[in-house]
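Lecture 7 notes: from sequence to structure.

We start with a single chain of 820 residues. Read the sequence below before looking at the structure.
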Amino acid sequence: MKKLLLSATLLLAAAVSQAQDFQYQTPPKALQDILLAPPTPRVSLSSDGRVLAMLQVQDFPTVAELAQPELRLAGLRMNPRTNGQSRVSYAVGIKLKTLPNGAEVAVKGLPAQARISSVNWSPDNKTMAFALTTPGSGTDGRVELWVADVASASARRLLATPLNDAFGNSFEWVSDNKTILACTVPTGRGPAPAADAAPTGPAVQESGGGKKTAAPTYQDLLKSPTDERLFDYYATSQLVKVNLADGAAQPMGQPGVIQSASPSPDGKYVLVRTRHRPYAYTLPINRFPQRIDVLDLASGAPVKTVADLPLADAVPIGNDAASSGPRGHAWRTDVPATIYYVEAQDGGNPKTKADIRDKLFTIEAPFTGAPQELAALPLRFGGLSWGNGQLALVDGYRWADRHQTTWQVNPSKPAAPLTVLFDGSSEDKYKDPGTPYEHRNAQGKYVLLTGGAMNQTIYLTGQGASPEGDRPFVDEMDLITKKTARWWRSQAPVYEVPMAIVDASGKKRMLLTRRESVTQSPNYYLRDATKKDKLTAVTKFPNPYAAFGGSFAKQVLKYKRADGVDLTANLYLPPNYKKSDGPLPTFMSAYPLEFKDKSTAGQVTGSPYTFTRIGGGSPVFWVTQGYAVLENVSVPIVGEGTKDPNDTYIEQLVSSAKAAIDEGVRMGVVDAARVGVMGHSYGAFMTANLLTHSNLFKAGIARSGAYNRTLTPYGFQGEERNYWEAPEVYNTMSPFNYANKIKTPILLIHGEADNNTGTYPIQSERYYAALKGQGATARYVVLPAEAHGYAARENLLHVLWETNAWLEKYVKAPTPPPAN
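Now the structure, written as C-alpha cells:
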C-alpha cells in the first residue's frame, strides 16, 4: 500500500506544470473489485404480466470501443460505421421466464457478442422485436431488425436492409401483430460526403431586425455546409412496412430526415415527423423546421399534411417557455385514429400575462375537418394520459412557483370546464398523490388502467416520500367520490417498489415489485396485495458484492442548517469501524437543488433501506480505504416569494456543507481538519465554489463542470434570468472569477467529448489555466472519448486512481503542526 501511494505521489508531482505522456493507472484492488462487480440484468415484463424478459447487461466498454468514429451533428451523436447512435448501453443476451415459476430459458439464435437494444414487445406479447448492432471494422457495420418468438425462445433477423438508427427507437409494432414500421437506410444511397472536403467558402450566420433568438449553450451543433451534407446523408431514412412472416418490406412515402413514425391504434394510418431545411448552426435538431404528415398504412400514400412548422429559433428562455405554433402532435391512444396537439396562447412566453397558457386540440380521421378544442389550460401543458372516450387526465405546471395541477377531462365533451383532480407544489413530495398507472392495451398503446363497474377507478403509484424516508405505494382512486384507498405500501426494513400492476381485478390485486434491503440486492417478486405476506420470488440475481462482504451499511442523518432548514445525508463508515477508533478522514459528495419553499426543501428523500450499488462516480468506494463518506448531502438553494434561489447561492451552499460536517463531528466520526469534497456536473460547480468561498475542505475533486457562467449567458440549471438581467448573480457564482483566491488543492476531470449543455471541456481547460496562472495547486485530467458521463473501463479505473491519489496526498495525510 505504501509503495502504491508513493508511486501515486510521484506521478502527481511529475505533472505539476506540464502535460505528460501519461498511461492509464489502476486504483487499489478493493476499488477495482467494486467497480468491476458483475452488472445486474435489466428486466422487461410482457403487458399481460405472463413473461419476464431478463436482459444481460453489457460490461463496461473499452476505451477502444468508445473511441470508434463518431459524428456529432445537430445534437445527435452517430457512428458512421453503423448509421446508429454511437453511445448505447447494450444487452448481450436475453432470457425468458414464464411467471411465476417457469424456468429461465436463454433465447437461441443470437450471434456471438450480440449488441441488443430497443427491445419492444408485440401487442399480443407473442414476439419481441429488437435492434441488433454489428460494429464492423470499417464501413460494414450495421443495425439490424431482429425478432424473437417467445414460445420457442428463438431469434432471427427479420429485415435484410439495415435500420437507420440515428434517432434510436427506429421501429414500432402495428396493432395487427403482423407488421412492424421501420426506418431504414435508403437503398443505393451511395458513398458518404467527404468529411474533410476543401471548404468552398466561410460559414456565415447573421441576425437582425430586432428579433430575439436567445438559446442555451447547446453542443454538437452543425458548423458548416459540410456538416449539413453529412447530417442529411446519415439522418435520412426510408420508412418501410415489414411483414413479420417473411421480412418483406414495402416502402412508405419518400425518404427524409424522419425523426419518428408511429402507427395509429387501429393500424390504418402512420403519423410521420420529418425535419427539413433550412437548418441552424445555433440550435439542435429538435428546433429544426418540421413537417407532420399522415400516410395511409396500407398503400404508403400521403393522406394529410397536418402541419409544416418553421425553425423554432425564437422560443423564449425559461422552463415554462414553448414554441409559438402547434406542437407535440401524437395519436390519442384510446380511440382508432385521432391526433392531438397543443398550441400556446401566450406566444410561448411565460412572462406574458395570460389567463390561458395552452390549448389542447384534436383532429379525427380522415383529417379533413377543422381541429376541435378539447381543453384550455391556465398552466403550461405538461402531459396527459388517455383512458377512454369519457376519461383523460391532463397535467399543467408553472415553474416560477413550482405549481402543478392535474385535471380530469371528458373527451366526449370538448371545451367543457376542467375538473381539478390534483393540485399543489411539485416540490412537496410528502403530499404527492402518485402517478396514474398506465398499461398497454390490445393495440400496444399505453392507456390508463381503470376498474370498477363504470371504469371510474384509477390506480396511483408513487415513491411515498415521508419523514422516515420513501415508502412506495399503490392506491386506487374513485373518480366520482375522489376518495382513495391504499392497496399496499412498502414496509421497513425493506425498500420495495411497484414495477407493474399485473392484475387489478379485485380478487388478487397482483403486483410485480422490485424488493431490496441494506443487505439484500434487488430482485423481483410477485406480490398479492390482498395478502400481507404473499410473495413469490421471480428472479434470483446474485449479490454483486458477495465476494467482499455483501453490502455497504449506511445511516441516514437528519440535521439542521443554520437558517433552520432541515437537511439529510447518507453516512457510510469503514467495515468494522468502532467509535473508539475516533474521527476519520472524510469524503463528501453533493448536488445542489433549487427550491421555492424552506419546508419542502427540508423534506426527506430516499430510503434508509435501499441496497447500495456503487457506480463509477460514487464516493462510497472510499470506505474501503478508511474514510467516512457523506453521500447525497442535502444542499437546498431556497428563494422564497419574489426572491430567486441563486440570489444567496454562496451563503446557502457553504452553510449546507458546514452543517453536514458539523453533524459528523458531533457524532465523533468526522475529522473536520481532514475533509474532501467531490461533485459531478453542477456538483463540480458546487465543489469549486466551496473551495473558493470556505475553508471547510482540504481538497476537492470537480468532474465535468462549468466554472464561468458568462459562457452560459442564457440560463443554467434552474436559473432562468439571463446574464444581462442578473450580472451580479452570474459573476458571483462563477468560481473562475475568483481563481486568485482558491488555496485548496483541486483536481479537475473532464470528458474530452462532453455533450452536456453548458459543460464544454473548455470550461475546465480555461479554469485550470486561470488557477495555474495564479499559483493554485491544481491538476487537470482529460478522459479520451468520454462524454458527460464516463463509460470506458480504462477511464473509470483511472478516475478512481486519480481520486484516490488526490485524497491520500491532500486529505488523509495528517496536518503538519504549525511552524513556531
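The CA atoms of residues 498 and 513 lie 4 Å apart. Keep this in mind for problem set 3.
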